[in-house]
Amino acid sequence: MNQDELKAAVGNRAAEHIEPHLTRETIVGVGTGSTANCFIDALAKSKHMFDGAVASSEVTAERLQGHGIPVYDLNDVNEMQFYVDGADEANSNLELIKGGGGALTREKIVASVARKFICIIDETKLVETLGQFPLPVEVIPMARSSVARKLVALGGQPVYRQGFVTDNGNVILDVHRLSITDPCKLEDEINGIPGVVTQGLFARRPADFMLMARASGVIDELWGQSKASD
Ligand code: 5RP
After folding, report:
1. Residue 228: predicted pLDDT
2. 100, 175, 190, 228: most buried by Cβ count inside 10 Å?
3. Ligand 1 neighbour 87 (Cβ under 6 A)
């Protein structure tokens, strides 16, 4: 199967994991990117099974609404059962690098609210050590250079993502040449730099469950430490 077919396969499989809550509203948090888009398209077929979605980006909100799925403001949602999203890299602890599409901050916020974070990837995204994919860091524009200098001091090589503005009005530095052996420590260090809004390491809040499509078409199911339940 080619990569597009694998993305569609994990998107479909993730939609099968969205089960309605019998006593409360069922709200699904939805990520951003081509794999998340496959999930949205699959979810549309069972939209009668849940109450609505919270989007991690403007583009995701538009796609959900295009399918007639109600999109809620996160402030109006008390509880979220699921968050489903792709990743740029994942390790076997289900720690992730995200933000290739620039939606990392809202993705991180929505993921933090969900009881169960289901990550959907194809096997090209699985790595032993995170950092081959440049780590996206969302930065307040006036702090671009000062943050870049601190990232160099941490051993990285930040590259300004030219011409890109996030949904929050900020800029992105993509940090190359990091070998991330302690993802939680680096996440804390970068979050502590003044001017950083957030960065794309999902280690403090990793995925709970991962669906990974292999080139053969087989989909592996991997559990993280939390064993979050539906
Ligand atoms: C967007 C993201 C995406 O999840 C990540 O970039 C993976 O995208 P794709 O599914 O298109 O490979 O973090 O900010």
Report:
1. 55
2. 175
3. yes
